[in-house]
Structures are given as structure tokens and as C-alpha cells.
């Protein structure tokens, strides 16, 4: 690892999860991702010493099913920023002093109660909302992390979460794990018109001097006004690594079975990947904003030819966001918006930018 590159370290505290969401399937098998960490934290600490500004985000399974490891890691690793991606069921298992040190919590919730509970299980929405209200007592940013399915009305669900007290909202399309579905018809009639309305809402708020917490919009604008993405915006393999509970260092936290994703091991060290993009991404006009979207999807290509439909959705989403750049520039010139307010680095929050 080059000493000058700050890295996002996603630490899988366990492969177990208490839920079985419709698009995910729940826990990893314990022989693939053990349910307790099996490596020596001091070895991880040693590797992290080369990183000038490590960000550590706890991940799983459900990371708070192993609060002991979270506490041990926070007591011994040299991170400058801490966070957690959680389903919100076990926030009480982590003592307040640790929540006080967290910078960001990503709570999984899909929007309105009926959408969230249909995807994730009955009662999940209320449970997450209770956790949100508890976590509001601490000085951390809280991001709603949505999975978007055909049940989603993207405008209604995203605005519902923003109005419910989340600081920011990020979403990802259900286009990797599930059986193929007619994503394009749904996108044309429901999703893309909703995305355009969200972009309009974003620019209306910008005119009032406010930056709405829509992470896909912020992430694309940031790549326009500041640094482009060299590859997947999540940083998979070149700016972020996932440490599995067995000590393997992986390029992506869901690629726990794939050989291409293994970068090394806590015991022996690891090497970051070069941020390379295959065709058609390499010569795509949206490359700067998209970075090939998701490395896992590019490598595994579960959807085969139908992945092109997802690509069309990505391009239409980026186009609609880019359409507000002239307005944003005019607002900067008039001093209504500070250019820096549009800077967004997904590595600091463990988000993917492109849905
Ligand atoms: S829009 Fe599609 S082709 Fe272009 S960089 Fe993204 S994933 Fe690749
Ligand atoms: S966006 Fe894709 S490559 Fe990046 S962390 Fe998620 S699944 Fe892995």
C-alpha cells in the first residue's frame, strides 16, 4: 500500500445477520465469513500504520451482532474516522461512549413503512426509526441506505426519509442478487421520472442556499467540480478494502467467495489494485462520473446482456444530474452556494454514489 493513500477499511465483524431481506438472503455461511473475528487485531493495526488517515467502517453480516469486536477495534486501531453500516436492530449493544466517537452511521431502510417491511420484514421500519431517534443524541451523520426495488417510488420514498430526520439518503438498485426483472420498463415509467423530480428538488433547494442530502446527486456533482472517479466510486480495491472476519483482505465486502477479490491477508499484507476500467467503461463519456459503477457487477455480470439496461439507467441518471450544472455554476457566481459545499468523497461514508 502506498503510504500517501488514505484508505477506507470495511471491517466485517461477523458473517451473521438477524434478517433475511428479499434481495439479500441474510447471513453468509460461517465457513466463508466466520461469525466471530479470527485474526489478531494488532496485525491489522500494524498494516494500518501506513495509512495517513484511515477511515474504519464496521460491516457484516450485521456488524453490531459482534459489539465486543467493535469496541476492541475502536480501542486499538488508529482510525481518524469511524462509522457503521447497520440494520439498526442492535444499536443498544454499543455503549454511548463509542457512539460518541462515531462520525457516520448508515441505517438500512427502504423508504416508507410498507416498502421497508415488505422487503426487510414486518416491524423493521419501526425498529429503524427508534434507532434513528436514539442515534440523534450523538454528534454523527446519519445516512439512510436504501435498496430500491419495483415497490419503490423513488421520489416519495427518498423525500419521506429526508423528512423523517436522516441527514442524507443513498440508494442502490436491486440489480445484482435478485432474479432478473423488467427493470427497464419500471425505470422508464417510475424510477427515472422520480429521479428527475429529485434532481429538480435538489436545484430548488440549492437556489435557497441549501444542499440537500441526496448522495447520488452530490457524488456526481463532486466528480464534475472536483476529482473524477478513477474506477468504482466505492473505491473497491484501489481506495477501499474489506477485511473479512477470517483476516482476508478483499476488494469488495460482498465478494467473499471470489478469487479475483482477494488482495492479501492480515498476516501477510496486501496489495491494492490498479484502478483500471474495461470497455465499454474505459471509453464511455460518463466514465468520470460513474467509474464503471460497481466492480462486483462488472466482474460477475450475473445479468449478462440485460446489464445493458442497468447501464442505460445509469446514463440517464447521470445525464439528469449533469443538466443542473449551469444553474449550480450561476448560483456559485452569485455567492448563494459555496463550491466546497458540493464536494463529496464517498470513501469517507462508504457509499457507492451511482445507484
Ligand atoms: S455509464 Fe455504463 S459504460 Fe459508462 S462508465 Fe458507467 S457503467 Fe461504464
Ligand atoms: S459498489 Fe460493487 S464493488 Fe463497490 S462495494 Fe458495492 S458491491 Fe462492491
Automatic annotation (TrEMBL):
Cofactor(s) demanded: [4Fe-4S] cluster
Q: What does the UniProt keyword field contain?
A: Iron, Iron-sulfur, Metal-binding, S-adenosyl-L-methionine
Indicate the segments forming the Radical SAM core domain, all copies: 13-146
SUPFAM superfamilies named in the record: Radical SAM enzymes
The record ties this protein, via Pfam families, to: Radical_SAM
Which terms does the record give in the GO molecular function aspect? Answer: iron-sulfur cluster binding; metal ion binding; oxidoreductase activity
NCBIfam families found in the cross-reference section: rSAM_AF0577, rSAM_more_4Fe4S
This chain's protein is named: Radical SAM/SPASM domain-containing protein
Provide the species name.
Thermocladium modestius
Amino acid at each position: 500500500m502506498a503510504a500517501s493513500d488514505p484508505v477506507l477499511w470495511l471491517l466485517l465483524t461477523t458473517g451473521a445477520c438477524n434478517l433475511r431481506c428479499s434481495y439479500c438472503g441474510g447471513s453468509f455461511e460461517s465457513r466463508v465469513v466466520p461469525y466471530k473475528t479470527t485474526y489478531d487485531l494488532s496485525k491489522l493495526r500494524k498494516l494500518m500504520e501506513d495509512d495517513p488517515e484511515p477511515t474504519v467502517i464496521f460491516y457484516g453480516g450485521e456488524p453490531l451482532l459482534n459489539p465486543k469486536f467493535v469496541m476492541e477495534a475502536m480501542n486499538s486501531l488508529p482510525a481518524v474516522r469511524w462509522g457503521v453500516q447497520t440494520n439498526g436492530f442492535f444499536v443498544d449493544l454499543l455503549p454511548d461512549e463509542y457512539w460518541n466517537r462515531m462520525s457516520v452511521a448508515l441505517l438500512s431502510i427502504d423508504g416508507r413503512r410498507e416498502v421497508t417491511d415488505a422487503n426487510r420484514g414486518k416491524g423493521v421500519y419501526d425498529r429503524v426509526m427508534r434507532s434513528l431517534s436514539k442515534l440523534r443524541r450523538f454528534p454523527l451523520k446519519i445516512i439512510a441506505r436504501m435498496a430500491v426495488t419495483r415497490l419503490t417510488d423513488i421520489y416519495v420514498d427518498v423525500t419521506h426519509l429526508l423528512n423523517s430526520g436522516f441527514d442524507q439518503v443513498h440508494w442502490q438498485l436491486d440489480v445484482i442478487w435478485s432474479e432478473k426483472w423488467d427493470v427497464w420498463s419500471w425505470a422508464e415509467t417510475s424510477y427515472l421520472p422520480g429521479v428527475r423530480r429529485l434532481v429538480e428538488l435538489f436545484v430548488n433547494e440549492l437556489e435557497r442556499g441549501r444542499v440537500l442530502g441526496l448522495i447520488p446527486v452530490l457524488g456526481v456533482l463532486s466528480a464534475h467540480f472536483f476529482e473524477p472517479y478513477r474506477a468504482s466510486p466505492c473505491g473497491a480495491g484501489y481506495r477501499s478494502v474489506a477485511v473479512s472476519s477470517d483476516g482476508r483482505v478483499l476488494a469488495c465486502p460482498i465478494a467473499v467467495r471470489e478469487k479475483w477479490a482477494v488482495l492479501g491477508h492480515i498476516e501477510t499484507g496486501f496489495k491494492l489494485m490498479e484502478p483500471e476500467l474495461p470497455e465499454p467503461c474505459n471509453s464511455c463519456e460518463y466514465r468520470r462520473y460513474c467509474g464503471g459503477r460497481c466492480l462486483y457487477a462488472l466482474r460477475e455480470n450475473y445479468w449478462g446482456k440485460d446489464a445493458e439496461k442497468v447501464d442505460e439507467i445509469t446514463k440517464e441518471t447521470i445525464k439528469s444530474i449533469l443538466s443542473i450544472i449551469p444553474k449550480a455554476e450561476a448560483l456559485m457566481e452569485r455567492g448563494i452556494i459555496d463550491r466546497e459545499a458540493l464536494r463529496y468523497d464517498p470513501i469517507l461514508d462508504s457509499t457507492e454514489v451511482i445507484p
